C-alpha cells in the first residue's frame, strides 16, 4: 500500500504501507462482517498505538483500492470512528488519527535515578552535569563527521579505534603514570563493563572468587555474581587493604581504589601499595585498579596509578563518568599481556566494539587539549565545593570531623555523639528533604566501623558519605543547614 496521493493529501503524508497490513484480515472477512471487522481493526490500531495521534490516513478511495473493498465501506468506517472520537476530519483536509485515546497509550518508564528539584541530594557518585562542555564537544563532533572516512563507520576493532587508544595511552601515561601500550588498551562502556569482562575471562580460567574492599562500592557483588564469581569482603586499615585478611582469603583477584579509596577517602600508603603487589606475585594473582576519580586531588599532585609499578599484575580501568558525564558510557581498560587476547575476544562477543562516532569524538577531544582544559575547570569547581562543605559542617555541626584526602567528589564526615544515633539522624534529615547516605551503607561484611585511620567510633556518632561535586556551594550550605535544623 502506498501513501495517499489523492486530493486528501500530498505524497508521503500518510503512514507507510506496513501500518495498513493490519487491516488485510478485516478485508478478507466474510462480506456481511467486513465493515464491522474493518472498524474494529482500526479501533485496535489506534488503541494499541500502532496508529499514533496525528497520523494521516489514506483517502477512502486509495484505501479501498488497496484492500480491494468498496469505497463506501471505507467511508462508513471513517465516519463511524470519527463520530466515536478515534479519528478526526475536516472538509478538504483529509482524515487523521485523533487525540481522544492518547492517555490509553502505553508510555515508557524512565528508570534513570532522579532526585526531586527541592531535595538537597548528597548521595555521591555524580559530577556536575551542567559543566559538560557542550560547545567544545559539538565542535569535535562536527569535525569528526566532516573528516571521518566512510570505512571507519564499519564494525570497529573491538579494542577501540587506534586513534583513541593512542590518545588514551599518551593521556594516561602523562596524567596517571600508567604504563600504557595502545595494543593493550580497550575502549569499554565504563568501569562496570571493564569489571564484567575481566571477571568473565577469569571465571573461564577457573577463578571463582574476587576480593572487594570493605567498605566499598555496593555494585561489586552484583557485577561479580553476573560473571559467576563470589565477592569476598576484605577489611581496610589506615594504610589501605589489610594484607593479613587478604592472604587468608585465598582469593587471587582483588579490586581496589588505591588513589582515593571509595568510600573512606584514604590514599593507599606507599608501603601498602608495595605489599599489595607482593601478594599478587606470590599467589599468581591480579589486582584490578579502579581509578574512578584519580585526576581530582586538591592539596597536592595526584598519587600515580598502582599499575605503573607492575603492569603484569595490575589491570587498570577508568572512565569519563566523573570527569565529563556518566551518560557517555565511555571508559578504558588496560590489561596485562597474558590476559589481553582473551579479554579482547570477550569484548568482541559481547558487543562487537564501542560506537565508532563516540570514540572518534573523544579522541579529537583529547588530542585538541579540550579534555585537559575540562579537567582543570572541574578541579577548580570541585575544590571550591569541598571547601564549602567543610566550612558549612564546621559552622552547623561543631566538632564534626572531615576525613580522607582532599580529593575526588565526596568526603567522609563524622558528626559528634549529640547528633546520633545514626538511624534517628537519617530519619530526621530525610523528613527535611535532604538525601544522605551513611558509611554503613557501603559495608559488605558487617558494620563499617570508623573511617580508616580513626580507630573505633561510638554507637551514637554519625558517619556520612557526602557527595558534593554535583551541588553548587550555595546548595551545599543550604543542605547542611537543613540537616542542622532537622536534628
User: Which blocks of ≥5 consecutive residues have pLDDT under 50?
Assistant: 1-19, 447-456
Largest sheet: 8 strands, mixed
Percent helix range: 25-40%
Widest beta sheet: strand line-up: 4-11-10-9-8-5-6-7
Mean pLDDT: 89
Roughly how many Å apart are the termini? 69 Å
Q: Work out the radius of gyration.
A: 30 Å
Q: What amount of the residues lies in strands?
A: 5-15%
Number of strand segments: 16
The helix/strand class is alpha/beta
Number of helix segments?
15
- Overall 3D shape: globular
Structure description:
By secondary structure, this protein is an alpha/beta fold. The protein has 15 helices and 16 strands. It has helices spanning 24-27, 31-48, 60-67, 71-84, 134-147, 162-176, 191-204, 220-226, 243-249, 270-282, 337-351, 356-367, 370-396, 422-431, 473-486; strands at 87-90, 94-97, 120-121, 185-188, 209-214, 230-237, 240-241, 253-256, 286-290, 314-319, 331-334, 401-403, 410-415, 434-435, 437-438, 462-467. Strand 12 and strand 13 (410-415) form a beta hairpin. Helix 6 packs across helix 12 (356-367) and helix 14 crosses helix 15. It is globular, with a radius of gyration of 30 Å.
Amino acid at each position: 500500500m502506498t501513501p495517499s496521493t489523492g486530493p486528501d493529501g500530498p505524497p508521503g503524508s500518510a503512514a507507510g504501507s506496513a501500518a495498513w497490513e493490519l487491516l488485510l484480515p478485516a478485508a478478507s472477512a466474510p462480506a456481511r462482517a467486513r465493515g464491522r471487522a474493518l472498524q474494529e481493526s482500526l479501533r485496535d490500531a489506534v488503541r494499541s498505538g500502532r496508529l499514533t495521534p496525528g497520523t494521516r490516513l489514506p483517502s477512502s478511495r486509495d484505501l479501498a483500492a488497496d484492500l480491494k473493498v468498496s469505497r463506501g465501506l471505507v467511508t462508513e468506517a471513517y465516519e463511524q470512528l470519527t463520530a466515536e472520537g478515534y479519528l478526526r476530519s475536516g472538509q478538504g483536509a483529509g482524515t487523521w488519527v485523533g487525540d481522544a485515546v492518547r492517555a490509553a497509550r502505553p508510555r515508557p518508564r524512565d528508570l534513570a535515578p532522579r532526585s526531586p528539584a527541592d531535595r538537597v541530594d548528597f548521595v555521591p557518585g555524580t559530577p556536575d552535569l551542567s559543566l559538560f562542555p557542550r560547545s567544545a564537544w559539538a565542535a569535535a563532533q562536527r569535525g569528526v563527521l566532516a573528516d571521518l572516512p566512510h570505512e571507519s563507520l564499519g564494525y570497529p576493532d573491538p579494542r577501540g579505534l587506534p586513534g583513541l587508544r593512542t590518545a588514551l595511552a599518551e593521556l594516561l601515561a602523562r596524567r596517571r603514570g600508567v604504563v600504557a601500550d595502545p595494543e593493550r588498551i580497550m575502549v569499554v562502556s565504563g568501569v562496570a563493563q571493564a569489571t564484567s569482562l575481566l571477571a568473565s575471562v577469569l571465571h573461564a580460567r577457573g577463578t571463582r572468587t574476587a576480593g572487594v574492599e570493605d567498605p566499598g562500592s555496593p555494585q561489586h557483588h552484583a557485577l561479580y555474581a553476573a560473571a559467576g564469581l563470589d565477592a569476598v569482603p576484605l577489611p581496610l586499615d589506615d594504610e589501605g587493604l589489610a594484607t593479613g585478611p587478604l592472604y587468608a582469603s585465598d582469593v587471587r583477584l582483588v579490586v581496589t581504589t588505591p588513589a582515593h579509596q571509595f568510600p573512606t577517602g584514604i590514599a593507599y600508603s606507599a608501603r601498602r601499595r608495595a605489599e599489595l603487589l607482593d601478594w599478587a606475585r606470590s599467589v599468581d594473582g591480579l589486582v584490578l585498579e579502579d581509578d574512578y576519580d584519580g585526576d581530582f586531588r586538591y592539596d597536592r599532585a595526584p598519587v600515580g596509578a598502582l599499575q605503573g609499578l607492575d603492569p603484569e599484575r595490575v589491570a587498570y580501568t577508568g572512565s569519563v563518568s566523573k570527569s565529563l558525564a556518566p551518560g557517555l558510557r565511555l571508559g578504558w581498560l588496560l590489561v596485562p599481556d597474558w590476559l589481553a587476547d582473551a579479554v579482547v575476544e570477550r569484548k568482541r562477543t559481547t558487543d562487537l566494539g564501542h560506537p565508532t562516532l563516540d570514540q572518534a569524538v573523544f579522541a579529537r577531544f583529547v588530542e585538541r587539549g579540550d579534555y585537559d582544559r575540562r579537567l582543570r575547570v572541574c578541579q577548580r569547581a570541585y575544590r571550591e565545593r569541598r571547601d564549602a562543605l567543610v566550612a558549612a559542617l564546621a559552622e552547623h555541626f561543631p566538632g564534626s570531623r572531615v576525613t580522607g584526602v582532599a580529593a575526588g567528589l565526596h568526603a567522609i564526615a563524622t558528626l559528634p555523639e549529640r547528633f546520633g544515633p545514626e538511624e534517628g539522624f537519617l530519619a530526621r534529615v530525610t523528613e527535611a528533604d535532604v538525601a544522605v547516605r551513611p558509611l554503613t551503607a557501603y559495608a559488605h561484611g558487617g558494620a563499617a566501623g570508623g573511617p580508616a585511620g580513626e580507630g573505633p567510633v561510638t554507637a551514637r556518632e554519625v558517619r556520612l558519605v557526602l557527595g558534593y561535586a554535583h551541588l553548587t556551594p550555595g546548595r551545599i550550605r543550604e543542605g547542611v543547614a537543613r540537616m542542622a535544623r532537622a536534628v
